[in-house]
Amino acid sequence: MTGSELPPQPNGVPEGTLDAALTASAVVEGEFWIFGYAEDHRGTPEAPGRVATLIERSFWEKLTDHHDCATDKVWGVAYRIDAAHAAEVREYLDIREINGYTVHYTPFYPASKGTAAFRTMAYIGTPENPQFTGPQDVQALAEHIYRSTGPSGPNRDYLWGLETALDELSPESGDEHVTDLSNRVRALVKAASEAEVEAQAEATSNASAQ
User: Fold this and answer.
1) Residues 129-182: tens digit of each pLDDT
2) Is Ubl conjugation included in the keywords of this UniProt record (predicted)?
3) Catalytic residue selected from 5, 97, 194, 196
4) What are the structural domain ranges in the chain?
């Protein structure tokens, strides 16, 4: 969809105001999201974490790990930035999303019925992006997320936060893939915790026997 075809900004919105759509109430159509590398927030260059990445539908259709529950909608949140701060916020977002994303302007459809769509700015990944992971085995992905951490914290906290956000946006916005991943990571955390308890109990028992 070209810029001239996009819905205009709502009436009464000052010129220069920035509407930025962030994947996480409302719908961005024409794009899908997948998990991509994260070297700077939920991982490191040596051990990248995984974060949700918007991609165009045409790219998504070429992937081989589709889920039966996948819909043609991406749920998210749009933030309206006052014109006085738009340039500053745009500069910050450009730096934050610099690692392989391009800026797209896309229609945003509020979940509230009767509210007209409006144009938003979104950062979209491409398969040429070095941070693009491509198809991934779900269990291997869960194990990678379980192990990864970065300056912004453990990768698992990001995943669980995404799950909570999607569940709370709308009765329709929950994602079975994210829930499945979250449950797999929880199982890994539980198994590790149980193994640690057993190891401590064994160490205590051995110490008592000496």
Assistant:
1) 666 777 788 899 899 899 988 888 888 998 999 899 888 888 888 788 889 999
2) no
3) 97
4) 3-209
Give the separation between CA 75 and CA 95, rounded to whole angstroms. 24
Task: Select from 180, 10, 16, 162 the least CA-distant residue to 77.
Answer: 162
Q: Does domain 3-209 have CATH number 3.10.490?
A: yes
Query: What tokens appear for 194 in the block?
Result: 């149980």
pLDDT in tens, 71-116: 667 788 888 888 888 888 888 877 776 666 778 888 888 888 788 8
Tokens at 51, concatenated:
């974060």
Beta carbons of 106 and 6 less than 8 angstroms apart = yes
**C-alpha span between 116 and 132 (Å, rounded):** 33
Cα(146)–Cα(187) distance, integer angstroms: 10
